[in-house]
Structures are given as structure tokens and as C-alpha cells.
């Protein structure tokens, strides 16, 4: 079983890569890819739950506790409401988990279709890395599916699309509190006039943010700064991070953020040189979304847990680079795939060489 699964998985990676490279769309291949991933979750559900720490905790909570009494309810209220609905319906935990995985994948497919993201571009990078980071954290996975939908609206530009992004991000924050931090993207000017998209306000905010990050890094006051902000969430787990501090991990996070920003920059430059106004505005917006993430630096000084923010934002960046890939020149697609792979390579070093993602996520997926 494991051998055939690995062979099928590798073949799907190759199919999605070739389709992304050529800029073509084949939704049958895309549906098969999503279907096989869900099939693995359905067949190996019990083994996943036994081996993955977060899922084991969720099952214990689902089976024995009232989620409405959880001290972190206000920070994950939508997740706990969905859990309560599952308990009230009499579903066992595995069936409830399966329903949530189906729901998340339906939202992702809707986001790809509504915003014309190339499904193979998304699935290639999803299957070679992001799936293994996301599926082990149920709250974060649910939040990601809604956030991806919202980011597509933000990239389209315009006041109403920005409102849609804000609503979607708040919904994602109901599943996992970290998504609220992405509301800073509302500072990005997404006007449909290229001149208005220069984002001088964002440049000023980021300049101040970099200076502040340097100051708090060398004075050791990052915990105090973030502690004041974290008090808004009144979340015990979130507040526990404030007691931590990173050393080399902080610089790894910065490198990953810069790689993602460089990918967005190359996309922006490509759009400016060869493509119509609509694409140029999207390129500007995507770049300044990444640029604004220098405000996350103080969080990285405290805990590498906040690198989850980079996981989500970099994946959205890569997915956006493949929007309507069939309209991009072959040379442009080649460059964007290369720079996206640089981002993945950086994550590989962080997660597989320094971290333990291979043992905690990849092996359980293929060898339950």
C-alpha cells in the first residue's frame, strides 16, 4: 500500500509540475490530486491521530470536554463552535475530522476557481512541501483555506475586494488567532490606479518597523513590545510565547521572509515589463504585501512558532505568481517557478535539516 501510494504521489507531482510549467489547466488532474490526498486522510485517519500530537489532543478534547468551556474559546471561537456542532450531532471524532478536511479542500478549490489561480501551480508546491506543514495543525489548516480565498480578493484591488479580504481574514482568525495579524495588509493601497499603488504609507511604516526591530533586538525588549500587543488576545497559549526568545532562529525567519519578498519582487518586475495594467497592479500589491511583513520581525525574535505566518504568506505569494499562468510567457513562468523553488528550498533546510518535519509529518503520511 505504501509503495503504490508513494508512486502515485510522485506521478501526481510530476503531472502538476508539467502542467504548471506549460501554463495549462486540467481540472480532472487537479481533482484527482485533491481526491488522493483526501483518500489518504480517510484510509489512515486512525493512524494519523495516534501519531500526530495535535490531532491526539483534539480527539481527547472532542471526546471528553465541552469546547465552550475551553479557556482559549475567545481566540478560536469558530473552531470550537464547529467542534460543538460535531459533538451535538453524535459524530465520532474521525468522521468529524474527515468532514473538516473535505470542507477545507472545497474552500481551497473555490478560491482557485474564483480567483483564476492555476490549480497545478498551487498543487505542485502544495504536494512537495506545504501539505506536510499544514495538515498536522487542524485549526491552522482550516484558517488557511479561508485566508487563501480572502487574499485573492485583496490582490484584485478595489475597496469592496479589500472589505471581502478583511471579512475572510477575520473568519480565518476565528479558527486560529494568528490570522488576525494579517489584517495589517489592509494598509496596502489596492487602488486600481497604478500611480496610487506606490504605497508610500506602507514604505514609511516598514521603515519605522525595521528601525524598531533593530532597536528591540539589541535592547532585548521584543518580549515587552509583543507582550503589550498580545494582551489584546487574552490567550494563554499566545501569551506563553512571550516568555520565549530565539537566537539563530530569528535570522532564519528573516531569510525566509526575504526569499518570499524577492519572489514577489520578480513577479512584480515581470508584470511591469510585459503585461497589462491589471497584472501590474496585482504585482505591486503582492510585493507590498510581502514588504509589509517586516513588521513581523519582533514576533520572530520571540518564537519561531510565528514562522507559521511565513508559511501561509509565502504559499499565497507562490500561488498568486501562477495566476492565469496560461497568459504568462514561458520565460516568465520558468523564472517564477525557479524563485518559488528557492523559497521551498529555504523551508526544506529549516524544516528537514534543522527541524523534524520528516518524522512528524511526512513519514506518518506515507507510512502510517
Properties at a glance:
single chain; 368 residues; mainly alpha; 18 helices; globular
Strand content: under 5%
**Overall shape:** globular
Main β sheet profile:
none
Structural class: mainly alpha
Distance between the termini: 10 Å
Question: How many strand elements?
Answer: 0
Give the C-alpha Rg.
20 Å
Low-confidence stretches: none
Following the backbone from N to C, one meets helices and strands in this order, namely HHHHHHHHHHHHHHHHHH
Q: Overall mean pLDDT score?
A: 84
Q: Please give the share of residues in helix.
A: over 70%
What is the tally of helical segments?
A: 18
Describe this structure as you would to a colleague.
There is one protein chain. The protein is mostly helical. 75% of the residues lie in helices and 0% in strands. α13 (248-274) packs parallel to α16. The protein is globular. The chain starts with a helix and ends with a helix. The mean pLDDT is 84.
Compact overview of the structure:
The protein is an all-alpha fold and 368 residues long. It has helices at 2-22, 27-43, 45-51, 53-64, 77-89, 93-114, 119-134, 138-156, 159-175, 200-219, 222-230, 236-241, 248-274, 277-291, 297-302, 308-321, 330-354, 357-366.
